[in-house]
Amino acid sequence: MSQADLDIKAFIDAMFGENAYVLSTPGSDNQRIGWLIDPGLADQAERILAYLQARNIQLERMLLTHGHGDHIAGVDTVARRHPAAKLMIAAADEPMLTDATLNLSDPFGIHLQIQTPAAEHLEPDMDLTLGTLRWTVLDTSGHSPGGRSLHCRDAGVVFTGDALFAGSIGRTDFPGSEHARLISNIHRHLLTLPPATRVYSGHGPVTTIEREVKFNPFLSD
Length: 221
Description:
- This protein is of the alpha/beta class.
- The protein is 19% helix and 29% strand.
């Protein structure tokens, strides 16, 4: 299956500029199958639900690149309409789902406590499949203790959450962040991907591995 067979739809949250993504691929009986990455605040989640319904997408998984509030806020909203979708997050970030201090939502007066339980943990080097596409879970922790990226070599894409942005990297001044760990994981697990790999980040525009290797000022030796 080629990248052309994978639909990627971004939804941008107005408050934090967070990118949620719906990935979908052909299923059967005119239905598509899909994943949702990092559903954000209510307005964004409602737009996602409308898109899933309009495209007749059967949601198989909700994948969380990490546990900060702007990336998890829409989980319960989506889960109520798609209860069969399997929620996945790294074990190290799972406590953030129910702790508004750990997920950093308290300072914004949002106080997020997600009720939907994680069905499975995202472990480094785990393989997942969406239709016929194989995906690999990458350890990109450092912005958060259990940060993960999702790479599909056949489609030439990687979803990096808040690990790597166009021209920048994730903040490491939060509780549980570790700057040296993030830099090491970016170099080991992201910059070693094929240069043409398209990078879909948790905030900001799409970039490529090649561009970040050449121009990202946070990653120079």
